[in-house]
Amino acid sequence: MPGVVTLHQDSETQTKPSYFRGQYWAAIGLLIGKLKSPFCLPLALQIHQGRAQIEEDTPAEKHYATLGERLVTMALEWSLLHQRPNVLVLDAFFASKSVFERVDSVWSLKIKEPLVTVIVRAKKNYVAYFPAESVKERKRGRPKTHGMKIKLMEMFDQSHLFVEKEISIYGKLEKVSLTTAHLFWKPTSSIICFVFAVTSRGPIILICNSLQQNPWLALQLYCSRTRMETMFDCLKNVMNAFRFRFWSKCLPKASRKPTGNQDLKKPKTAHGFRVVRGAWKAQEGFVTLATIAQGLLQMIALKQTQHVWKQSHAFLRTKSRELPSEKTVKQLLAPFIVHNFVDLATGGTMREIRKHLFGANTLPSVQWEKPDAIKHAA
Q1: Per-domain residue ranges for the chain?
Q2: Which of 22, 173, 208, 279 is the most exposed place for a label (fewest CB within 10 A)?
């Protein structure tokens, strides 16, 4: 399949290999619902590695932008398409110079700030500098760009600078101590807003490119980033979005133990490139259809919460939150979809679907009543 490369991921589990073969999918999602208990609505998913297999002019993967820049580009394209600013929440992997430079490249004249505001977690070994002191008389030599150096983790020793407040993070109310500092960061060569917070899970440092960003909201948004992991889990295990098999004989076979991705094997002819591009688009299109279906399940869960819980007869030992999950809504809608397949007029396509579902061309007798949630949604 196109897009399959060698991936690396550190893990404490010894049974999980550090290097494995797979596809590198990147996604951006939109928080919907209440901030205390939201959904992550998938907006776009793309394969971000292995593009050398579908482009004839670029000889190697290293000529492309970094993985962080590609993800930021997805967010910028969405903001430009809808002409509205947004906040992009990322983990510590994206705390790099290239990410902030890509974000600052597109400005909004309306808010007089970058179109995309980035909130990213800083690593524990990061350092910053105090702003340079203003000099009244200009002296010979280059003026100072920054002042004294400070290790970011040392800020937590200054307990008198922190303010305590009760906010909702990770779906629960708890007291959080927080302070902010505008410091000079060498990777961006500019003043950056640093948010220092102490929660029940320990200290955390956030970096934001907007000096006007509300620090309490920044912490809440970052703690909501776990909904992205839940979204990927739902796409994989509930929607079966990645169970596709778009093989192409035009793509040469790769070694079972490849050494790296610098020299990915490509199609040998122009026709082969067209076929592989078609398989690549088919993969992304298949996943896009799954994201649309997941979004519909989320909207039903948000709009018809009480009706879904009333009509659902699935066993749940403990409700994790007030909103029903995508899996609960799917279990409720599955009989309705099968009922529609039976009621539709007979045709060539429907005969194949029924044969795949029921194993024969004969129609089963289905006795089923439409749930109230479906009636209200209709």
Answers
A1: 85-132+145-210, 324-378
A2: 173
